[in-house]
Amino acid sequence: MKILFCASEMVPFVKTGGLADVAGALPKALAKLGHEVKVVLPRYYAIDRSTLDHIPGPLGVEMGPLGTLWAGVFKTTLEKMEVYFIDYERYFGRSGLYADERGFSYEDNDQRFIFFSKAVLNLAKKIGFQPDILHANDWHTAAVPILHNVQNDPYFAKSASLFTIHNLQHQGIFDRHAFSYLQIGWEHFNPLEMEAMGALNLLKGGVFHADAITTVSPTYAKEIQTPQFGFGLHDHIRAHSYKLRGILNGVDYEEWNPATDPYIAKNYDLEDMEGKAWCKADLQRTFQLEENPHIPLIGFVGRLAEQKGISLIAQTIEGLLHLPAQYVLLGAGEKWAEGFFSDIAARYPNFSCYIGYSNELAHKVEAGSDLFLMPSLFEPCGLNQIYSLRYGTLPIVHAVGGLEDTIVNFDPQSKAGDGFKFYDPSAHALYHTTKWAVDTWIHDKEGIAKMQRFAMSQRFSWQRSAKEYEEHYHYAQERRQ
After folding, report:
1. Less CB within 10 Å around the terminal CB: N or C of the chain?
2. C-alpha 355 chain-centroid distance
3. Residue 100: is its pLDDT beyond 90?
């Protein structure tokens, strides 16, 4: 198949979250299955134009009341796959992707990403690429399936659309005037399609108009149809659940592999675990904790955002710090959390943190920790718990979304499992599950060793995920026809 894959971020170019990891890995996996894949991204300020090839001639994009806007197009090749960049300084020549340095969303995000979605479709014509599949991701490109379905452009007559929801919390909700940028009839601005409480909801429109929908884990596909996790769209998604499939994200095991990881103190693997003790000592030194092999070390890597359960950690921090354990936290985000955890690190010798993000430190935390804390309030898929499994670092998780799908709860009788789960999103549940994990690590070495062996043997490959996407692409084509 010919697949046009569009996203607002992609590693190795720009990243704020898991969407970038998926955009960087899934198209490559699809290409390895024999499909012709082209990826389209905005050309943000952080992406150096001098490293890209320029495509001659401007790209015109009609934006209704704003008139025709003219963009440039750049291209590069990534592992035999073409990646295109829409270059429009007014919208993308900024330091942030979606928000400024203070964390405030750009006021013209509606214009920016409707423009980008239209540019994706126009680019396909410019380069003479008639896709079998238009694969859009999250609200930023939700206008692609909307425009494809409403406009009925003969150029895309044989194309079907697939829309992936990576995080339903962010829906692209804007004032109703933004609807005029789409340049489609106002009869489509209704509660069944993309109107929500008088405002424009792009993600809602993407769900309605896409030929097929996916989200990034089977459990999350069920959760977003409930009031608890649906963020107001649960009824809408339930109405379109017949075309929804949950496909678990894969992991890049070339990067996340303790046997070859260049960032860690000593490589190790299932057959020879000696290096993990070296990595733990190195992590303790790096974060200025007592070098002690006999005390469990618990790691956290992630955004300091409410979704990631940081309030639960803050509420129970005093109890956690009185357990016989050490803690390492790596992340940045909400200012209160950055200040709170920095203060805890200054006052307690068994807690250390690095405010910010470092890929090298992330690898060191995964390899050097004994346990990994991931108490997310909701988690569409999650990747860090899967990285942890590969490194023999046992996750402590709130059993939601992809965390429920990827972690097997420890059974003290059979010693089976590869992590520790709690089901109630409360500080009480987090504390007692962490205490259970710490007690198990100290007193049940046989159980821990068996869990590590099982964890490190688990594989969540992108090849498996890509084959499932391939199946759902065929379903989208059948529905379109």
Report:
1. C
2. 20
3. no
